[in-house]
């Protein structure tokens, strides 16, 4: 009991410190803004948001023209700064803009952090209790749990600055690909890193990279998929030659923020560059078009029983699989949370479909709200993507109590979505089958991020 109270008190103090350092980082950014015209206070998106107001169609060529926003390259990566709201006088004064948490909320958030390793952790509640700072608060707590700050001799102000940049670079208006999703994936990754089969073999570097990749794996996601960027001839599609476009951008943006924050500047150049490359390898593994590639390799290792977690390369591969699992683990959560995530991701799909319809573009698979129902999309997603991956993870863990719990939720949720699917009118049945075919196509033909 005393240990539990001590843990909660420690988390309480840590959250308070986290908020203070966020204030310090924000204030530091505003001071820098005034020097030499460097605009660092604004959200560091790499390109203007995909917005109806900045899109125009060409009657002759059917192309989408670029918006009028002025953009600026930074750090040799394709990361742009929007025009400064500070100079327009539209930034709220601090500290009011940070909405500091009161003691009651701090206490509840600290209590939740003491149970962050449980699978029924409610990330939506935690995000409310931290007033939208779930990703920063969670990452700082986990770095503290693993002693990563001490091990890598990290500067706390630089760490908070970096995490704040990552959190801000997620688009809060996205129903799904936002900072709460990143926090949810990070919490799941932490649960996987604690698996007995894996935990004893991991090095501090493995843990550092696993948590960092989880937190940043979708940073600056525009809320549309790769085919949309390709058919609108977005500059990122050209830059990455229509291959792993979004994943490459998430990685490059993360490296840019690491360098801008100078989080790893105290390490030898070859060490920090190696960490950046490994981070990229993890983030690029989340490309759903590579699902079959990773799944077949994973299955082959398990069939041959030749995984040796004392080898750094094999540990890295398992971290890739763990991140892929964490990224799509929503159907393995309890129904109440799983349903929320399902509705959010479908809402994001539908928004893209509405945008494509408005500009007379072909509507992408799964993005037609009139044709693709949530139950149909989720049934196909579970059948073709989630279930095959988690069945192999279940084998890998031999199986663990956590894996048994996840598979139990997965089967129950799949059955529930199936019942909801068949509750629709008979005329919908063909549409549902098409939704499943679209998901299968998505995996085999590099369809979606």
TrEMBL record:
Binding site for Zn(2+) 2: 218
Catalytic activity: 3',5'-cyclic AMP + H2O = AMP + H(+)
One GO process term, biological-process aspect: signal transduction
Recorded superkingdom: Eukaryota
SMART domains with a match to the protein in the record: HDc
Cofactors, names only: a divalent metal cation
Name of the top EC class for this enzyme: hydrolase
Family assignment from sequence similarity: Belongs to the cyclic nucleotide phosphodiesterase family. PDE7 subfamily.
Protein name per Swiss-Prot or TrEMBL: Phosphodiesterase
